[in-house]
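Lecture 7 notes: from sequence to structure.
We start with the chain below.
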Amino acid sequence: MPGRRLSSVRPPSQPLSGFEGDIDFKHSQGSSDDHNEYFGTTYHADNRSLRTFAVVAADFKATWEKKLRERDDNIIQTTQKELHLAFQKKETEIANIINDMETLHQDFFAILEDKKRKITAAIAEAQEELIPLAVQRHQATISLGHEVENGQLEGMALIKGASTQDIAQELGSLHFDC
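Predicted structure tokens for the same chain:
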């Protein structure tokens, strides 16, 4: 006779696990007395054993799953802590880099300001040197202007004197009949 499938009996409080639903029971090949014995008192004892086995297996499975969940939760918590620490470390590194960049930026602008002040001071010194030169040139121009003016006045006086003589000579050469 082929193997017979019997569903295991489980207490109503226990969930049905994957392997409890169908259990194959194969009886040994023997006489019909063995068959009756198997399905008689032995069957009830085997049925109780199977129920106990199913309860123990379900309990083991629940415990195993609980331990797996706890292990997974611990792994997740540990990973989250490590990740949090890594993020904090990177945030600190980034903050330090930003501070270094700001310091470099401030130093750069301080150097630029120093160079700008030096250039401005050099321009001011050059201007201070140019002022006396400009004053000298201005005075030389004024002086030259006076010389030109005096030359013009002398030239005009000479022209006036020459023209007065010419006029007198011309007048002297003219005879008037009156």
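Points to note: DSSP finds two helices and two strands in the chain. The longest strand covers residues 4-6.
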